[in-house]
Structure formats: structure tokens, C-alpha cells
């Protein structure tokens, strides 16, 4: 099955399942409506308060909504249909008014799949009865809930890796390793919070739900600070500066392309891990020019013959494979660098974003002794028009239009060298 077909199939299954669950719940009514409202409100507030949270792993956003969804699935009030209906309705209500994107649809599909898995398996657990979970069922039951959530976490990682491979073209084993490597960051806290949030209201009432999630917020905040400190390895930044110092590219070119590529990737709804791949590939997209005896004029590779661009891209990919990146990330970054000169239909999304951002910067930032001066509004419009005329082969129309929206809000500021 092709990548695009796999993504469409997952989305159709998730959307169809949500519609059937909503219809079934509307027909049969909501069991324990106060409980459903409490957990639904928790999910809505989590969606409104921050970026769309990742299910289970919760990278890139507040994971409270994920924990609330899993906690409600553990209650299994009304079975799988009601659990899916409440979670999907709350997630869509909380995200109302926000621009959508393919990655957000992936996350919602994963959220609903995890909810259905947990709600479907919970009644089969040892000690599970028709009553709502409570402390009277003992510590063994709480442990069985944690084991069920651990299974759901692994299943979610497998689905996330399949979707990442379909979207980016990276090898599935590498994508799966990346998902599993990221799980220890917040997944244990999400699972533990979900179990507590499922059991505690039976004793203290629904009002205790926000207090159950406070430790999870602290864990996520600490993890976010750690991720920010490790945003760009020094060796990657040094490779980006090397092309400037060698006179291969205009000053600051790689940093501008990286900032613009990241903004375009975010506009397209890419996940945080994929934005990191885009940023690294953009910083190293010109390192192949270091092998040239005679530098390309102004470092502009787009006007070169296709075979020469492919040769430089392959050389750059060879260098990128040696960069001190995570073992799961390095081959994906190298693949994006190597395929810069391919037709966009044969490129992973990261390569499409970097190529379009690079072409725009080359068209609008001529070299100069004091660094390139950004083009005016007219020059930017002419550059976008040239990119739109090249959408048959070189640039994906969706990426070009995302670039246009980013520029309409103001070009992103590149990081300091």
C-alpha cells in the first residue's frame, strides 16, 4: 500500500468510526452523563489551553487531553462507541477555529484508535466488573490498567511510525525507533495520570480531575525545557557556517533557509520531530558545495544543470550521514539532503520544504559584502510567482502556498549564528 493510500485509509477509518460512534451514542443515549461531561470538559480545556496534544507520547504539546481521553476509556461507560464519541467530540470542540493540517489529523486518528483499544480491552481485565473502577478493586486492578495502557502506548507508537513513514518516506524501522526512543519522555506520566484520573473520581468526585493532572503538567514542562536546550547540535550549526566561511554561499543563507523551512513545516502541520528533521536538513543542504574547486556563483544551486545538482545533493547527504545526530534521525535528514534535486513527487516532505525555502532565499537575497539584503514586497511577489510557475516538476504547490502564507505574516527571524 502506498504512503498516501495508507494515510487516507487511516483517516477514513478514524472518521467513519467517529461518525458511527456519535450516531450510536445519539441513538442509545449517554450513560453516566455527568461523568462524560467532566472528562469531555477536561479534554476541551486541554485542547484550548495549548497546542494539539500528542496522544500517549505527548511530544510537542500538553498531554493532559491524552491522559483525560485514556482515563475516560478506562471507565468504559457505554462501551467503545460512547468512549470514542466523547473523545472525538471533545477534541474537535477544543480545536474549533484552529487551522487544520495533516499532522493534526494523524494525531486525532491515533487518539481515537488508542481510545477504542483501551475501552474495548478494559472489560476483559482481571477484576473488571460492571461497576465503574474504584479502589475497592485493589492494587492488582490498577496494575492491570497500567499494563493495558502500556500496550496501547506501543500500539500507538507503531501506528505513528507507519504514518511518519507514509508522510516523510523514511524507513519504517528508523521511524519506529524514533517513536520508541521518545516514549520515556512523558508516556509513563501520561499513563499513570490516566489511571489516577480514572480511579480517583469514584472516591472524591469529578472535581478532583484537574488536580490529578497537575503532576503531569510539571513533567511536561520540565521535558519541554530539556528539548529546548538540545534544539540544534553544535556540529550541525558548524556545518551550516562552514559554507558561509568558505565563500560557497551568501552569509547567513543556511540559517535563513532553516528558519523559513521550519515556519513552512509548522504551517503544513508537521510534528515537532519532523520539524527538527526539516531544520537539520536545511542547515546542511549546501554542504556538498564544500567539495567544489570553483564555488557556484552566489551559492545558487537552482540554476545549475539537474545532474550537477543531484551530484551536489548526494555529496551533501554523505556528509549529513556523518553528523552527530540521533541514530534514528540521521538517515532521515541525510535522505532529505540527498533528494534535494529530485522531482518533488519523488521527495519526502522535508526535502520539498527545504528545496522551496532554499529557492525563495536564492531569489530574494543577493550576496553582498555586509550580508544579503532582504528583498522588498515586489521582489518577494516575483519570487513566489516564479516558484508557482515551477510547480509542475520542482516545487509542490501545497508547499509554495504554505510559504506564501508564512511570508504574508512576515518572514521568520533567523537564529543568531
Task: Itemize the secondary structure elements and their pairings.
Layout (H helix, E strand, L loop, with lengths): L2 H26 L4 H17 L14 H12 L3 H16 L7 H20 L16 H31 L3 H28 L1 H4 L4 H4 L1 H16 L4 H12 L7 H15 L4 H12 L22 H15 L9 H9 L10 H16 L12 H13 L7 H12 L9
Helix pairs in contact: 1-4, 1-5, 1-6, 2-3, 2-4, 3-4, 3-5, 3-7, 4-5, 5-6, 6-7, 7-10, 12-13, 12-16, 12-18, 13-15, 13-16, 14-15, 15-16, 16-17
Task: Provide a descriptive summary of the structure in words.
The protein is mainly α and 417 residues long. The protein contains 18 helices and no strands. The longest helix is centred in the middle third of the chain and has 31 residues, at 138-168. The protein starts with a helix and ends in a 9-residue tail after the last helix.
Write down the Rg.
24 Å
Compute the number of helices.
18
What is the overall shape? elongated
Mean pLDDT: 77
Helical fraction equals 55-70%
* CA-CA gap between termini: 43 Å
Largest sheet geometry: none
Structural class: mainly alpha
Share of β-strand residues = under 5%
Spans with pLDDT under 50 lasting ≥5 residues?
51-62, 130-136, 225-231, 367-376
Number of strands: 0
Order of helices and strands: HHHHHHHHHHHHHHHHHH
